[in-house]
Amino acid sequence: MLDHTYFTAIESPIPTGKTRTRFAPSPTGYMHVGNLRTALYAYLIAKKAKGDFLLRIEDTDQARLVEGAMEVIYKTLADCGLTHDEGPDLGGPVGPYIQTDRKPIYAQYADLLVELGGAYRCFCDKSNPEPDPDPDATCAATGPVKYDGRCSRLPADEIAAKLAANTPYVIRQRIPEGQTTFSDLVFGQITVDNDTLDDNVLIKSDGLPTYNFANVIDDHLMGISHVVRGSEYLSSTPKYNLLYQSFGWTPPLYVHCSPVMRDATHKMSKRHGDPSYEDLIDQGYLTDAILNYVALLGWSPGGEEEIFTREQLIEVFDVKGISKSPAIFDMDKLRHFNSAYIRALSPEAFHALALPYIQQTVKNPAYDTKAIADILHQRCETLCDIPKKVDFFDTLPAYDIDLYENKKSKTDATISKSMLEAAIAAFEALDHWTSESVHTCLMTLAETLEVKNATLMYPVRIAAAGKAVTPGGAVEICAILGKPETLRRLRLGLEKLG
RNA sequence: GGCGUGUUGGUCAAGCGGUUAAGACUCCGCCCUUUCACGGCGGCAUCACGGGUUCGAGUCCCGUACACGUCACCA
């Protein structure tokens, strides 16, 4: 006989009606973009309702554990500001928060469920084949391979005998006849015939629960109000609802999210080389930009505004805006968000972020990295754009003289030559070398020469940088280069022009 | 194969029986300009298909196609 006081004792101390969501990854790999989005939505739902966001680790598959995966999860959540209120590291009122630490709890509830008639012990060992290498193909060819349920019909004395003989067993869910309906906040009401459902294993022979069991027990005991997860669980949700019914519990609200795709037919995946959160960071994307973009992938705020801080997202987020169809991850749009976030940074913040990238190609300590950061600030989409944009500071590239030919600024080799001569003369006479003085010097010179600014500026910039496209104009570049180096490069240009 | 779900421009998407079918990204053109970028203006381009229901359908119903998910002692 089961001790029912045990269950009352460990029933959740969380007040009903409180919004609580959870992010429940299994530590099997890296944090892909879809995962991050699920975590974000769960966080937003909780915080919008002034509720709790918990972290639970689903590690019941001992074979798939990956070293270091937990650290990636903690670090990503922390970096993104998706701070949890309860979790393995923080503890909390409904712990433990790691499933393998909850093993005794599942065993108790499994026994209860057997007693309640919602599950049965299965002694079949034949039904433990090696994992099918290609279950999809098998099902397509042979149809579904359902367990025949023979152990569900075992007489009591036979069960007792097997138990007494220590026969290993699993616990399977008993699926009743009829139909099961559940409601999802994104997909609406879904009904299935119970005969399409299998008597799934709830407790494995190693005594650990499967996801199918653990998620129900944990979500209930932890007082989870909204279960936010990927839409791959849509098909098994009826089974979970049946479990809630057997226990006499109220099921949570479901929020199933469609996947983030790499193209029309494939999910984002590590195998295809799609970037994880960490990869994106390495590629020079800002956390806030990634978060903002990911929030909008498969969710629409309704209005025309697209840029939101995390705080604004909490305010504006609504489950109603989550879309049912999958969304394709668009790197171009991420770049757009990233450049907007970079431009919105303070000059100091940008300099701090950009410095290591600048130093990849600008090693000459004479150059003012703050000034270089300033000319880059409004001009890069990712931090990784930086090194090659400023590589000309350390070494003047070998450039071709037709670079001097430019229609818009009305320059060609001949005009450029005279412009450089004039600029060199003016610069030689310039003692005080600052951005302002260089600017005044050049502007005055253009006026004296009676040419448009571009006609003078263009050749000076080409000679100074040796590149057609540069961050900043002639003035900024010359100012950073300093007088001697500017003059050296301008004279070199003059030489080239014959 | 069974079951489930989805389908508005190239991409993200708004739309909730009557709209010139929003907006953003991309791309193109123009303006601004010291190259580029930023910014401003403009442009290309969409309701998967077929039947209904209705005075009227992207919007509701049915079917078809296609796609995805699921059918593990994985989650």
Describe what you observe in this structure.
By secondary structure, the protein is mainly α. The chain has 20 helices and 11 strands. A 3-stranded antiparallel β-sheet has the order 3-4-7. Helix 13 packs across helix 14 (369-377), helix 16 packs antiparallel against helix 20 and helix 18 (453-465) crosses helix 19. The chain binds one RNA strand of 75 nucleotides through helix 5, strand 6, strand 7, helix 7 and strand 11.
List the defining traits of the structure above.
498 residues, mainly alpha, 3-stranded antiparallel beta sheet, two-stranded parallel sheet, 20 helices, RNA-binding
Low-confidence stretches: none
What percentage of residues falls in helices of 4 or more residues?
Answer: 40-55%
- What's the arrangement of strands in the largest beta sheet? 3-4-7
Total number of helical segments?
20
Strand-residue proportion: 5-15%
C-alpha Rg (nearest Å)? 32 Å
Give the oligomeric state.
single chain
Query: N- to C-terminal separation?
Result: 103 Å
Determine the structural class based on helices, strands and strand pairing.
mainly alpha
Question: Which descriptor suits the 3D outline?
Answer: elongated
Strand segment tally: 11
Largest β-sheet summary: 3 strands, antiparallel
Instruction: Estimate the mean pLDDT confidence.
Output: 93
